[in-house]
Amino acid sequence: MLFKTKLVHGTLIKRYKRFLADVKLDDGSVVTAHCTNSGTMKSCLEEGAEVYLSPASDPKRKTRFTWEMIKINDSWVGINTSNPNLLAYEAISAGEIPGLEGYTKVQREVTFSDSRFDIFAGNDTEKCFVEVKNVSLKEGEYALFPDAVTTRGQKHLKTLLEVKRQGMRAVMLYIVQRTDVAIFAPAADIDPDYAAALKEAVNAGVEVIPMQALVTPDEIRLVRKLPFEI
């Protein structure tokens, strides 16, 4: 996924009200950027750290920039939670995700039952629903999800179970937007109900695919499939 416009460099002053962040740009000016990440951002929030922002395409938007990434431990961590959906769509369309190749029809935002899944992929023999989650939480060598309690995430798992019961393929695709981790796992200490629901889903045949992404100021690209522990 290439960034459409040149990103703007700065340093983080503070994040507040969940969706706002004050950033000091290299020219000394201070701007307020939109933060798409509604979680705690634990382990990827450090005041004074380098950040990159993307300019807003809508001149009428209140915040002129969107916060894209932050440098933690000398590597970039992607914090824009809308990027993984586009990244996954592009990669599945191009057959670049191991286990999700060979689909001739790929659509975004497809409704099933009372839920809307991020991606539907199909061909002449198979139908597959994919839910995409952004992962930024790090603990040791583990990438963990979620970083806050998510009842919406539990609902998606339950609906994926119904997809599987109806004979279709159901996939949880976790996009890990940092390279300083080696294993994916649910954050059971933060949301034990989600961890239990994920285990139930996996035991029923729902697939888990954690993909690690390399984040740079020019692009975000998937680099490898991570092992996982449930």
* CATH-derived topology of the largest domain: Trna Endonuclease, Chain: A, domain 1
Structural class: alpha+beta
Shape: globular
What is the number of strand segments? 15
Class of the largest domain in CATH?
A: Alpha Beta
Q: What is the arithmetic mean of pLDDT?
A: 96
Rg measurement, Å: 18 Å
Which segments are poorly predicted (pLDDT under 50) over 5 or more consecutive residues? Answer: none
Helix-strand sequence: EEEEEEHEEEEEHEEHEE
In angstroms, what separates the terminal alpha carbons? 29 Å
Strand order of the largest sheet: 7-8-9-12-14-15
The proportion of residues in beta strands is 35-45%
The biggest beta sheet is recorded as:
6 strands, mixed
Domain unit count: 2
The helicity comes to 10-25%
Pfam families: SfsA, SfsA_N
Protein name: Sugar fermentation stimulation protein homolog
Family: Belongs to the SfsA family.
GO molecular function: DNA binding
